[in-house]
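Take our chain:
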Amino acid sequence: MAEPPAKKAFALRLDPALHAAVERLAAGELRSVNAQVECLLREALARRGVKLDAPNPPRRGRPPKEDDDG
């Protein structure tokens, strides 16, 4: 059975100039636009005193080998 998605997906409408600015910033920090928006939102919330749990990044690479005894 498929696992539920780890993140909530939703549509976000942005002014084209704002999107272009976020895209440039993301490229400079080697992030996707999506990751950059999430980072900016976390920073803005922290400045307002909103405490969030640390993000749980996805595990990368191959899954560990399973021992087959039979």
Notes: The two ends are 25 Å apart (CA to CA). The helical segments are 16-28, 33-47.
